[in-house]
Every structure is written in C-alpha cells, then in structure tokens.
Amino acid sequence: MDIPGLPARTAALRLTDAVLRRGETLEQAGPSALQGIRSDADRALARALAAEALRWLTDLDALIDSATRQILPDDAKVRSVLRLMLAGWLRLETPPHAVIATALPLLSGGPRRLAHGVFGALTKQDIRLPAAPTLPDTVLARWGTRAGTIAAALAQPPPLDLTLRDFGRDPAETAHWAEQLGGISLMPGHVRLPRGEAIERLAGFKEGAWWVQDLAASLPARLLGPGEGRNVLDLCAAPGGKTLQLAAAGWQVTALDGSARRLERLRDNLTRTGLTAEVIRADVLEWQSGASFDAVLLDAPCTATGTCRRHPDVLHRIGARQIGEMAQVQATLLERAVAWVKPGGRLVYAVCSLEPEEGEAQSNRITLTPDPVRMEELPEGLAPTPEGWLRTDPGMLADAGGLDGFFIGRWRCEAA
Length: 416
Description:
Blueprint: H1 6-22, H2 26-33, H3 40-55, H4 57-66, H5 77-90, H6 96-103, H7 110-123, H8 137-143, H9 147-153, E1 160-164, H10 171-181, E2 190-193, E3 210-212, H11 219-222, E4 231-235, H12 241-248, E5 252-257, H13 260-273, E6 278-281, E7 293-299, H14 314-317, H15 320-339, E8 341-351, H16 360-363, E9 369-370, E10 390-392, E11 406-412
Parallel strand pairs: 4-5, 4-7, 5-6, 7-8
Antiparallel strand pairs: 1-2, 1-3, 8-11, 9-11, 10-11
Helix pairs in contact: 1-2, 1-3, 3-5, 4-5, 5-6, 5-7
C-alpha cells in the first residue's frame, strides 16, 4: 500500500545516515538518497526533515533519552527514525498522527513498538525545543565564546541573498530590484529575500539580472575593486558566483576549477547573465601558466563550517582530522597563488570556515605585504579585525538575517 509522505521519510533517513555514518555532505548524499522520488514536494520535504534533524540533533537525542529506560545506541535505526519523527513534529509542525503513519513503516517488529511508545510519551508532555540548537560538545570546544551567538543564528534556515549583475554601480538599480523582489539591501548590488519561492520564478532570473550568493561569500571579490580591464585569476572558481562578480566588475577573468560538473553550472550562469570569462578545467596544484595576474582570488577548499546555517551536516562531520587535512591543502594552494600575483598586484584569500587553522593561521604564511580591509568596503555592521582581516560568523548582522562565516584577507605584491 502506498503511504503518502513515506518516500520522503525514507529519503530523509538515507540522508541522515549518509552524514552520520559515512561522513558525506547532504549535497553528496542527495542523488542516491533521493533517487526515484519524482515529486518536488517530497524531495524538498526529505531535505528539510534531514536538515532539521541534523540542526537540532543534540536536543532531539536528549528528548529521546528522557523517554527510554535504556539509552539507545547512537547508530540505532530506531533512534534515527525518532529523530526524524520529532523533527517533523517540533520543527515542521506535522501533526503527531501523520508523523506516526509515515515514520513507523520505516521500522519493523520491536523497534516499531518502541518508537511508537517513545514518540507517544513525548507528545503527551509539554515539551519544546530550546530557543537555539545545542551544539555538539566538540563544536562548543572549538568555537568557544562565539558558540552562543552562532548557535542562535542556526535556529532558522537563512534568508536568500542575491548579487546583482549591476554589482552596485547604480544605486537606483539596487533599489529597483529590492522593490521589485520585495526584499532589502544590505549594500550596493545586494538584495536579501525571505526563503520560500522557487528561484527560477523570481523576476530577473531568466534575463540574468542576478545570481544567488550569500552576502559574506560576495565580499572576497568585492575587495578586489573594479577591474578596469585588468586580468584576474579566480582559483577554485566553481560554481562561479565570484567569477560572475569579477566579470561584472570589469575584470578579464580566468576561472580555474577541477570539477566538470561544477564548471558546467558556472558556464550556465555565464550564459544566463551574458557575462564572459575564460573557463579552464584543471587541478590548481598541477596547472601550469607562464602568465602572472593583476589579481588572484583564492576561495580555497575548506571544511565549510561557516555555512552551518544552510548545511547543518558540518556540525557532525567535521573534526580535528578534517580541519588539519584542509589546512595542509590550503597552505599548498596559497604557495601557488602567491606565485601568480604580478608586481603591484593583489591577492585575496578566503575560506567559508570558522576554524582559525584555515583562516588566521594560513594568513601568517603569506609572504606578500598586507593590504588591510577598510571599514568603508564592508556592509554596515561589519568591521575589519585589528590585523586588517575580515572575520564573519553566522551570529553577525543577526537582526537582518545573519550571514555565513568567512575568513578573508588581502595582500599586495610590491612593485619591483
């Protein structure tokens, strides 16, 4: 018998299992977990259930443990199903009877009765989740005094940020699109919208007037300023938001990345927006070029813990080993990036990570001259660090909807 909603729950269980057992990202797990689900609504529901279960995992587990005589193993299937049941009830406001009807078929035998009993006991109590998710102990230890404000920013999925093709050259253009789309602007060339409506249906999408890009993710390219026909090397460029920004700002862009799939997205967006760039598929560590560039932008591969608002899987996948491995990759990439900056040119290094090993510690390796970020280059409410770097985290600009966590630094190569 077909049970409406069951395919979405099955897929959500696969998604959380891929994250917690195998260390995959939700994005990596998606194609396999969602295979065979044709309904857009069911696919969206599966992703939402998995994301909310991961976002509130520590608190959901505490509720489960409060209603069982013996603590269930972390990897027990019944615990995984109960997490989804509670996430559906407490976060997505699914009625308890619908939760039971769509989740219990995921289990059989004794675990089904156990899940029914635990969930039923909890629904009879006046239980609520805290105002903000409780972070895992390992994450609390790493983020220290920042953890409270970051956790508060995780309570709700983030808004939708758009970068305008106009890139802020004409203030009237920013005002036009903010009004047209019903959003707000936090700096020229930016519009922020509530989540919900399909991106492809928004005004300006087909004509390429904008692209989706978190406000913090738009800052590294902004810090290179107008291109005025000069050349820039965008390393690890895909899926291409920064490439589009640089092209829109008048740079002659060489966009380099090793992923064919992600570069296809970049090319699609170039076509949609009418912008141009030279796109090269190559491994940055192997690519050879005798040319040097007026600017180099390295938005390096990282643990992406700064994206925890939209990717709560990073709260559970990332630890000291992954941070150390990424720091080694970043150090090697930086050595290459520095060598491509011509005298008088600039380097911007960025990571969407909250870990100092990937940001501040890497900056100390760079042999170029610091080129401090200035207050007037940033959205109101953000400020450079005393060293002239920019450090953002999801708790900043909270009243306006927050932003991703980034480290961004800028340097210049002294003219000979």
